[in-house]
Amino acid sequence: MRIKDVSHHDIHRHDAHCINQIASRVLRDGTLVAVFNEERFPFHHDSGQTLLARSADGGISWSAPEVVLPWSETSGNWDCGFCELADGTWIVNMTIAGFFKRGVRAEGVSWRNGPKTKEWGDWTWSYKTMGWLGTYVVKSKDRGGTWSEPIPVNVRPLKHGGCRIGCWQLPSGPVLMGLYGRIHGYGEEGEGETTRSALMRSDDGGDNWEYYSTLAYDPASIIDYEEPSLLRLADGRLVSFMRTHVNPSGDAKTMVFVVSEDDGFSWTSPKWTNIWGYPAETIPLQDGRYLMIYGYRRPPYGVKGVVSEDGLTWDEKASFFVAENGVPGKAGTRSAAGPRPIDWENPGVYQHIGYPSVLQTADGTIVASYHEWEDKERPLQYVRATRFRLAD
Fold first, then answer.
1. SS in 3 state form for 332-363?
2. Cys staple from 181: which of 139, 158, 206, 284, with CB 3.0 to 4.6 Å?
3. For 349-367, what is the mean pLDDT?
4. Are 53 and 34 in contact (CB under 8 A)?
5. What are the angstrom distances between the C-alpha of 361 and each of 28, 55, 232, 355?
6. What is the rounded distance in angstroms from the CA atom of residue 85 to the CA atom of residue 253?
7. Are 68 and 80 in contact (CB under 8 A)?
8. How confident is the model over 291-346, as pLDDT tens digits?
């Protein structure tokens, strides 16, 4: 598979903060909307605020971002997603955490010698004192002019529910939200329990939610199933793709998928693909095929795609790069000799690239949005869009 008419376009950069975790959708009127996270630090931290940008020309140019839900000195939000309901309501889902600018400091030095900012001080200490408060949605009836107060999503029996991308509305009206989390612990690991993926459901347009179904879970607590996507096939079946890790090593393995024939109430057992990368988003194409876009955190790094004829048969050998690299050539750490080149086999924090989202415009152009690192001495993450067409 080859692509053509490729062009890259910045969505948003910041001169002091990382910008990441983007999700995009095309509205019924053809406008593109992207929501993403502005970190309050120059590193990925999950304590920022949700921004929204629009494009009226198919992803070539983007509006100045608007704040959907701002951070405060005591809270932050991230991992946002976007959905336009049939009645025109906009829903943005996100995770909210309690964030403490100071907290109660230990008497000794910080747990790690990390970067400091004038506004927030030692961000590593802030990360240690941050705690998940819940999954929430905000709604807008006026196309983002105003937003509701955050509405809590009841994820019980989960104690933690992490978002990845936006919600999906079924043709019959209910709204589904894909989450990943655990029953026994509030974080992403611990208590001898691996992560499960699940669907939450709302039957009233996003005001009330409940746990609807389990997408995948390993009772032996060996495999993590995380960051689910959702694809509706032409025959009505739903397919969800998930990122996987095995324990105790935490090593990333190939993606799996599950299938539902009853609008998401029950699912098949996970089936392994041969596609290594994460996480994924999948969409139906106008020509009847299906497209998956996913991050690739191995040399040469970047964002990849693969096309399926039926949405169930996928082959890594048919994959292609949408964008390569995204990892800076020089790390921000310095030695007496100056900046040190990163280790491309294990670039540490700089491997955090991708998290792509994808859509197709009315004229057939495919727009993939994702985050990557600037290639600078002090690199920052930013979000951009790549427009392309399939060559065959």
1. EEEECCEEEECCCCCCHHHHCCEEEEEEECCC
2. 158
3. 96
4. yes
5. 10, 11, 18, 20
6. 34
7. yes
8. 999 999 999 999 999 999 999 999 999 999 999 999 998 654 544 555 567 788 88
| Separation between Cα atoms, residue 273 and residue 313, nearest integer Å | 9
How many structural domains does the chain have?
Answer: 1
Computed over every residue of the chain, the mean pLDDT equals 91
User: 113 — alpha (psi -120 to 50), left (phi > 0) or beta?
Assistant: beta
Q: In which residue are the tokens 């949405």 written? A: 311
In sequence order, what E strands does 99-222 have? 116-117, 121-122, 131-140, 151-152, 168-169, 175-181, 196-202, 210-216
Q: In terms of residue numbers, what domain contains 233?
A: 3-390
Question: Rounded to whole angstroms, how far apart are CA atoms 276 and 256?
Answer: 10
pLDDT band at 116 (very low <50, low <70, confident <90, very high): low
Instruction: Give, as one character, the DSSP assignment of residue 226.
Output: E
Q: How far apart are the first and last CA of the chain?
A: 6
Which of 15, 18, 127 lies closest to 352, judged by CA?
Answer: 18
DSSP secondary-structure letter at 127?
H
157 upstream amide cis, omega within 30 of 0: yes
Residues 56, 325: Cα–Cα separation, whole Å: 28
d(C-alpha 379, C-alpha 333), whole Å = 10
CATH number for the domain spanning 41: value is 2.120.10.10
Q: Which of 46-60, 167-181, 242-256, 334-348 has the lowest mean pLDDT?
A: 334-348
CA distances from 73 to 20, 67, 97 (A): 20, 16, 11
